[in-house]
Design brief:
about 325 residues, mainly alpha, two-stranded antiparallel ribbon, globular
Amino acid sequence: MRPIVIGIIAAFFFAFTFVLNRSMELSGGSWIWSASLRYIFMIPFLFLIVVCRGNLKQLLIEMKRNPQSWFLWSFVGFGLFYAPISFAAASGPGWLIAGTWQVTIISGSLLAPLFFETKQTPNGLIKVRGRIPFIGLSMSLIILLGVAVMQLEQASQLSTKMLLLGILPVILASFAYPLGNRKMMEVCGDRLDAYQRVLGMTIASLPFWLLLSLFGVITVGPPSTGQTIQSLLVALFSGVIATVLFFKATDLVRGDMQRLGAVEATQSFEVLFAVAGELIILSAPVPSYVSWMGIILVIAGMVLHSYVSNREKPLKMAAVRYKSS
C-alpha cells in the first residue's frame, strides 16, 4: 500500500499543474512560458536537494556514461509530456485536461510489452517481456468511465475544434510520460534515487526548454510577473514535490508491471483534486450530481485496481511455490 499512498499524495501536488495553468491562461499568459518556466525553475530546487544529500557526483557520472539515452528519454518523458499539456490548457478548461490526462492509466498498461519485468521461477529470478495486465486494465476502464461521466455535461458544450486541441495533445503526453519514466528507470537501474533521476532528466531536457523560451520571446514576448510567480509555484509543487514522489512510488514497484500500473492509476485522483482546486482558487461552479457519480466511479475503480494489483502478485508467487514443491 505504501507506493499507492505516495502516488495519491503525488496526484495532489500534480493537480496544481491543471489549476494554475488554467489560471495563467485566463489571465492572458502564454502556454509557452507555462511549460518552459516550470522546468527552468525546477533546476535550482533539485540541484540544492541533490547537493545537500551528497549525490551530485554520482549523477554526473551516470549522465556521462550514457548521454544519448538521457537526452532522448528526458525529452520524451518531460518535453513531450509537459509542452502538450500546457498547449492543451490554452485550448480547453482545466477539468477537461485533468480528465483526459487519465488516459495515462491505460497508456502505461499498453506500454508493458516494451519492457522486461522480474519473475520468480523454480530456477530463481528471471527477466521476461512484460505483458499487458488485462485484469488491472479492466479496473482502469472503470476509472475512465467515471472520468467520462464527470465530463459528460461540460463536453457537450464544447466545439469540435476545442475538443481536439484539448484532447489530442494530452493523449500524446499520456504515452510520453510513462514511456520516458520507465526507460530512464532501465537506464539508471538502482544506482540513482528519485531526486537524482528527476534532476538529471530536467538538466537533460533543458536544451528543449531553452529553445522553447527563445521561441516565446520572439513570438509572444517575455512572461508577466504573475505568470512567472505561478510558474514558480507549479515548478515547486508539481515539478519537484509531485514528480519526486511519483518517481519514488514507481521505484518501489520497479520490475512489476502489474503493481506499476496500479501506482500510475493513482494519478486518477488528480481529477478530484483539480475539481477542488478550481472550486477554491478559480471559483468554478460546484459539480452536478452526474459529475459526482463520475467521481464515485473514479474512486471505486482506483480501489479495485489497487486491490487486484496487490492481490495478484501473492497468488502468482504461491503458484510458483506450489509448482516447485
